[in-house]
Automatic annotation (TrEMBL):
Lyase is among the record's keywords: yes
Function: Catalyzes the condensation of formaldehyde and glutathione to S-hydroxymethylglutathione.
Protein name: Putative glutathione-dependent formaldehyde-activating enzyme
Keywords: Lyase, Metal-binding, Zinc
A single BP term in Gene Ontology: formaldehyde catabolic process
Cofactor: Zn(2+)
UniProt cross-references to Gene3D superfamilies, sorted A to Z: glutathione-dependent formaldehyde- activating enzyme (gfa)
Binding site for Zn(2+) 1: C51, C53, C119, C122
Pathway this chain belongs to: One-carbon metabolism; formaldehyde degradation; formate from formaldehyde (glutathione route): step 1/3
Reaction(s) the record says it catalyses: S-(hydroxymethyl)glutathione = glutathione + formaldehyde
Cited InterPro entries: CENP-V/GFA, Formald_GSH, Mss4-like_sf
Length: 215
């Protein structure tokens, strides 16, 4: 074997083992981000979500697409097994109806701002509703991956990214997580996106009287 041949063989071997390593060892961000993000359909008009029970599934009917869909690294949002992040979007609460097996749902934490209604049997969060005075009151939080149909808005940004450390993720891996989001075209934030932070701040200023209620 020539030395050039040997070098090429070695290089090939290291490339293969590097990729095998990254394929097997890279933590899953979320299935909808790991292998590239699929763009949604702007004409998507809603659909149904189902819990993970094999039968008597909780069914939730959504009357519209979601907005502000995003990856959330917080400890409270539901994540599919093995994923570091949840993917969650919002839509008006009057567009969300439990259409089957409502008796199987319960509220995880009634004192939380977002009341997450989950299936008691499989644990999947079906929708989160804000019932108290809150900037996002009137919006429900849902996970469109629970749907059997496609075209839902794709994730737009990553929120509460540093929160994954609180759940045991090694801080040394954070650069790789943020780089992966960047590669997929998503900005990473440690709270919410600027648009949502501005909405919260505007609500607070209007409540305290620093800003007019009619902007
Ligand atoms: N670092 C905290 C952040 C929790 C948090 O503030 N989550 C956000 C994003 S979902 C929120 O709005 N929570 C309100 C709630 O859960 O009711 C954690 O990971 O538990
Ligand atoms: Zn279930
Ligand atoms: Zn969250």
């Amino acid at each position: 074997m020539t030395s050039l041949h040997a070098t090429l063989k070695q290089t090939f071997k290291s490339i293969v083992s590097y990729h095998l390593f990254s394929l097997t060892m890279a933590p899953s961000i979320h299935p909808s981000v790991d292998f590239g993000i699929q763009k949604g359909d702007s004409n998507k008009a809603g659909g149904k979500l189902y819990c993970h029970c094999p039968n008597n599934k909780v069914e939730v009917t959504l009357g519209s697409n979601v907005a502000h869909n995003h990856a959330c690294g917080c400890s409270k949002c539901w994540k599919p097994s093995g994923a570091l992040f949840s993917v969650v979007g919002v839509l008006p609460a009057d567009q969300v109806n439990v259409t089957a097996n409502a008796n199987k749902t319960h509220i995880i934490d009634p004192s939380a701002a977002i009341q997450r209604n989950a299936c008691k049997a499989c644990g999947v969060h079906m929708y989160g509703r804000i019932v108290t005075d809150h900037p996002f009151k009137g919006l429900d939080f849902v996970h469109t991956e629970l749907s059997d149909s496609k075209g839902w808005q794709e994730p737009q940004f990553a929120a509460f990214v540093s929160s994954i450390i609180e759940q045991g993720f090694d801080p040394k891996g954070m650069d790789a997580v943020r780089q992966k989001f960047k590669k997929e075209g998503l900005e990473s934030y440690d709270v919410l996106s600027p648009a949502l932070m501005d909405l919260i701040a505007t609500y607070t200023a209007q409540k305290s009287g620093k800003l007019s209620s009619k902007l």
